[in-house]
Automatic annotation (TrEMBL):
Domain of life according to the entry: Bacteria
InterPro entries per record: Dimeric_a/b-barrel (IPR011008), DUF4937 (IPR032555)
Ranges where the DUF4937 domain occurs: 2-86
Protein name: YdbC family protein
Alphabetized Pfam families for the sequence: DUF4937 (PF16291)
Length: 201
């Protein structure tokens, strides 16, 4: 499965949200599995979207045929658009499905991993982070995606902001030490996103 992550700074909120509804047109696209997104909780005006495709071939076909027509409604409503593509590596919890209806919060962690530490990083995701997140109240499902150049995205869906709050900083620090995160990773950026139900396709 291919995961597309889009982050942008919105300059015309009403126009952007109106344009967002046009993406319902994705439903007829071959290989399309789902899309959702919302507003950053920590960065005003920043929107995140994640879309899922069965394969890179289906995604490339969509980009060549239909993308520009659907995207036209949002031209001029945002700036600093950044798009990254990731291949699904492993599930967080079990049986990831690109479904947003039962979730309120999307958590994103983008990691640039040192080339000589990729195998260790992936092992720690599986043995340390995955069980810890799977056992957190309110955590529904997630995945680890990989892009060329040792870039990884940890994406997780949560039932509510209150439940996400139970995943506390001191617990994260203990897990990071146990997983030797500082040795594995050259840089980490993340965000917590309040999902907008009207953006779900």
């Amino acid at each position: 499965m291919l995961v597309k992550w889009i982050r942008c700074t919105v300059v015309d909120r009403r126009g952007f949200e109106r344009g967002q509804r046009k993406w319902a047109g994705l439903l007829g696209e071959p290989g399309f599995r789902g899309q959702g997104g919302g507003w950053s909780r920590t960065r005003p005006g920043v929107a995140h979207l994640v879309a899922f495709w069965e394969s890179r071939a289906f995604y490339d076909s969509f980009m060549a045929r239909s993308h520009d027509r659907l995207a036209a409604a949002q031209v001029g409503t945002f700036k600093n658009g950044q798009t990254r593509l990731f291949e699904h590596e492993l599930d967080v919890k079990v049986g990831f499905r690109p479904v947003f209806a039962d979730a309120d919060v999307l958590r994103l962690a983008y990691c640039q991993v040192r080339a000589d530490r990729v195998d260790h990083y992936k092992l720690m995701q599986e043995k340390v982070w995955n069980p810890a997140m799977a056992g957190s109240p309110g955590m529904l499902r997630g995945l680890l995606g990989r892009a060329p150049g040792e870039e990884f995205l940890v994406l997780s869906l949560w039932q509510s902001a209150a439940e996400r709050g139970k995943y506390r900083p001191e617990r994260l620090e203990r897990l990071a030490l146990r997983a030797q995160l500082a040795a594995d990773v050259a840089g980490v950026t993340g965000d917590v996103v309040d999902l907008e139900p009207s953006w779900t396709v």
